[in-house]
């Protein structure tokens, strides 16, 4: 930040571009680091958290945030924060076998570069990985028995398929649950600014099913967001189908047609850290 510049935000994002090798290896991509003030309360854990066995003291942090920047109708008189398990999440991913970490990186690249649209943030993809892991038992899954650096091609493809399928399941249910606090639900798509934004847009424009997107009337065809949501639906499925085998069944992951404004089971103001 140039001298004399002040920021209205409590957090700062630093983007690093490597011009020299790191430990003898070239880093072709930029690295971003978020610097934020946090509070750690010794011995305190949320009542509704899960998988405490994967956490260590200091893993549960409260991060200061300014929701007013995104939601102007929220007053500035009271401080706000969100709960993050970023440390535990990073450790969980770091301790995964090489094939799972590789699959995570592959899906991140696919999500960003498969087409002209970026689908999912790295945090959403990480949550998909964790929920896939929870369906497995170390004693019954072969991927846990080989913790070396060798990555089997067939096993890698299977993990990529599972992660992308989980992401489409998130999209179909219109939210993704945080791994350590499932009641903390957040938007799935990268450009979705708040929970169920896209679902509400469809419903307000008279779109009850995703098949209706393929028969838009003249007025609807000029709606940027309807066309954008349609493109996300098509290209995300194409991305999934490209990693399927010839004998795999093609499947559509379609959101509910229930009015999103009438749903009461999924709503929370807690935000997971990216």
Q: Main beta sheet, described?
A: 3 strands, antiparallel
Task: Report the uncertain regions.
Answer: 138-143, 264-274
Shape: globular
Strand-residue fraction?
5-15%
Q: Nearest-angstrom radius of gyration?
A: 20 Å
State the helix count. Answer: 6
Report mean pLDDT, rounded to a whole number. 81
Q: Indicate the percent of residues in helices.
A: 25-40%
Strand order of the largest sheet: 3-4-5
Order of helices and strands: EEEEEHHHHEEHH
DSSP strand tally: 7
Which structural class fits the helix and strand makeup? alpha+beta
| End-to-end Cα distance | 22 Å
Which helices and strands, and how do they pair?
Blueprint: E1 12-16, E2 31-35, E3 38-39, E4 61-65, E5 80-84, H1 86-94, H2 98-113, H3 122-134, H4 153-173, E6 176-177, E7 185-186, H5 197-204, H6 224-242
Helix pairs in contact: 2-3, 2-4, 3-4, 4-6
Features:
3-stranded antiparallel β-sheet; 274 residues; disordered C terminus; alpha+beta; single chain; two-stranded antiparallel sheet; 6 helices
Give an account of the 3D structure:
This protein has 274 residues and is α+β, with helices and mostly antiparallel strands. The protein contains 6 helices and 7 strands; from the N terminus they run βββββααααββαα. Strands 3-4-5 form a 3-stranded antiparallel β-sheet, with no helix packed on it. It has a two-stranded antiparallel ribbon with strand order 1-2. The two termini are 22 Å apart.
């Amino acid at each position: 930040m140039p001298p004399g510049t002040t920021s209205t935000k409590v957090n700062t994002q630093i983007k690093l571009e490597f011009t020299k090798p790191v430990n003898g290896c070239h880093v072709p991509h930029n690295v971003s680091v978020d610097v934020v003030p946090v509070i750690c309360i010794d011995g305190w854990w949320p009542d509704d958290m899960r998988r405490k066995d994967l956490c260590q003291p200091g893993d549960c942090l409260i991060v200061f945030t300014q929701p007013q920047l995104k939601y102007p109708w929220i007053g500035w008189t009271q401080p706000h924060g969100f709960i993050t398990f970023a440390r535990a999440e990073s450790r969980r991913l770091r301790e995964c076998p090489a094939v799972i970490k590789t699959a995570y990186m592959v899906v991140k690249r696919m999500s960003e570069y498969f087409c002209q649209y970026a689908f999912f943030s790295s945090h959403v993809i990480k949550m998909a990985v964790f929920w896939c892991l929870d369906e497995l038992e170390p004693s019954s899954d072969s991927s846990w028995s080989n913790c070396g650096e060798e990555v089997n091609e067939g096993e890698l493809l299977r993990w990529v398929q599972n992660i992308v399928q989980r992401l489409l399941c998130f999209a179909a249910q219109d939210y993704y649950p945080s791994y350590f606090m499932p009641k903390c639900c957040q938007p799935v798509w990268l450009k979705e600014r708040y929970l169920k934004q896209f679902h509400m847009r469809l419903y307000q424009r008279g779109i009850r099913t995703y098949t209706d997107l393929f028969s838009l009337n003249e007025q609807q065809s000029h709606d940027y967001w309807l066309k954008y949501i349609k493109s996300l639906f098509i290209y995300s499925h194409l991305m999934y189908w490209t990693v399927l085998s010839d004998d795999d069944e093609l499947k559509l992951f379609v959101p509910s047609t229930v009015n999103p404004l009438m749903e009461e089971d999924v709503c929370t103001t807690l935000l997971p850290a990216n």
